[in-house]
Task: structure prediction
Amino acid sequence: MTEAMTLDDLATLAESVDVECKAAQGRDGKGELPEDFGKSYCAMANTDGGVIWLGIQEKPRGQFQAVGITELERVRKALWDNLNNRKQVSANLLAESHVQPVVVAGRTVLRVEVPRALRQTKPVHLGANPFGGTYLRRYEGDYPADDETVRRILAERVEGSRDERILKGFDFAALDMDTVAAYRNLFS
Result:
């Protein structure tokens, strides 16, 4: 199903930590998945998620226009082929509902909603090696993660969180109330 967006909606758009716009025109001008789509996808998945608009161009800086995608199905197929190819991207986090055509000023663009990856799935990276293929979203850019950051993400992935485990046979009487009070004071 295609939803509609007005020119006023487009005027309020701004690239940020959770929004990225790509013209996605290709050489023939009919639509092509941009080569740097994977970087933005991985970066958003590794941070807080976001939306990638394909078919919206930012030119000049801060001004957006819908250029549209003529061959929308070709772009969609390329997107799904890349996301489901482990040699391209380590994890596909998207469902069909995350990839939707939207009509803007009479032109069809593609809205790709990238969810935040679960700790157990991170890092989402390009290629087979997370070192050199992991990106993080900062401000309005996609930046490569340094090796130390990748090691930390990998360590968090394999170590189960102690906070999410429910221990059977314990109740509030098992807690040290002085420690709870100290935590509450610190937290407030």
